[in-house]
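for the record, two folds in this file. i put them one after another cuz i was lazy. first one right below, seq on top, structure tokens after. the second one comes after a little note so u can tell where it starts
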Amino acid sequence: MVAAADSDGPLAGKGRAVTVRAPVAFFRKPSVLPGFGLTLGFTLSYLSLIVLVPLAALIVKSSGLGWNGFWAAVTTPRVLAAFEVSFGLSFAAALTNAVFGFLVAWVLVRYDFPGKRLVDALVDLPFALPTAVAGIALSALYAPNGWLGKPLNELFGLKVAFTPLGIAIALTFIGLPFVVRTVQPILQDLPAEEEEAAASLGASRFQTFSSVILPAILPALVTGFALSFARGIGEYGSVIFIAGNMPGLTEILPLLIVIKLEQYDYAGAAAVGTAMLGVSFIMLLILNLLQQWMRSRHAR
């Protein structure tokens, strides 16, 4: 508001106040994060090109079969058996890793022993080792005449290579680091005072573990389980050498997709891939919802 007096006209000298409205300038509030719009646009564009566009192309390719053709392609006995092998053994391997991965992380965090750094480095070996090399090594190790396969076969009559058990071992091998590296930081940040307080109140070791430690690490444990499970579903290199690749028994979904591509059945391969994508998405969504529920419950 600006007040001014009339100097001309009949009201001159009477000091009449005239209200003048100053122009209002609208300024955009600066963002706390500089370049937020640019980085967000780059992130969405990058994810679209790397993730969304290939997945959309997969779905579009499979839609060319029509619903009846799509359903017929993904419900053949061979495809259903491959679904059972891939998802069932991936789940079993991830569950095994959830148990033993937690034990490995616990030992690495809570105890000091000679060679601890070496053991800690060996956990990351499946990350660095090419999957095909891992598959060849496991096949040679668990073959009927291998270092471990021969005594297992002679003493217990247990055949590992070229059986579903061999696939489970390969998936366990490549999925173990996901659980260990997810749980390990949580155990390191877990205050020891909480365990001491529980012990001082008369809690047993099992009660301390179930009431203090487990609720704190359970979300991270579920995350590691989900990562190990997702890796196992799509694993190819380390499995095909030890699986035997027998249709209906040890044939995995990634191998079946490769076989369909080699037979120029691109629509059928896309249909199997789309079904695999849908089932994987639903299972991972359930695991993520379970993880969020556990975190909210622990926060209370």
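(here's the note) second protein begins now
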Amino acid sequence: MTGRQTRSTIGMLAPATGLIAIFVLVPMVLTIGLSFTQWSTQTGFETASFVGLANFADLLGPTSIGRDFRAAFANTAIYTALSVVLILPLSVMLGLLVHQTFAPGGILLRTVLFSSYMVPMIAVALVWSKLYSPTEGPINQMLGWVGIPPQTWLSSPRTALVSIVLLNVWQQVGYFTVLAVAGLTQIPRSLYEAALVDGASAWMQFWRITLPLLRNTLLFSAVIAVINAVQVFEPVALITQGGPVNSTNVMTYHIRRVGIERAQGGLGSAMAVTLMLSLIVVIVLLFTLLRDRGEQR
């Protein structure tokens, strides 16, 4: 590459890398730095005082700070795990329905599924809060038709978090179905034809051909699903505000509560850093797990 080409490449990359540095890298470095300080968000950065690992010690300690943090972390982990476990199988099943050619309606189904992802999460949260209404919600009315009493979906600690998960699955599954369809289109049709000649059943074709060749797509989908689930905020902020009894108090909402409402910027930054490190560990484990399974195959 000549010097002129190098300068041209740098010139084309500079706007994008500059924006990434300003809006991603700088806030990330600033958050990491503030996590080692005691700082109030109501004052300037010059008032931050270095406290070392004291904030992280508080998060792991026996005080109310540590208990609330661990409860929010556990809620986030449960929410993320349930979302991924539901979204990935549903996206594959719906993707197979959309991708099939022996029955009409695949394009229409793809459009309907993806349209749910295009609806803003704020609107989805408001609509689902009405669907979950104990007295006039359609869900309880349909349950009443089969003799099941009304459920307090968002008012009970046992069902509130699961209700938010179902809301998220409905909104996200269309996007992941499109990803599954994209992966299915990359599988050569000749493999299925050869399997039919060998007498393989539809289940064996799925287990031996479709699922292994969807491994990279499922890995990408799992990573995106985990990242999306960890960032959940709107449904909690609009519907439950972390309740009842902190059963839906997830990390993003808890960080906002501590860092903004209580003005404990250093402690909130430490929570954000801990969440970021945990997310990195989970993503690395996903890559390692699926890579090892692929090598075993």
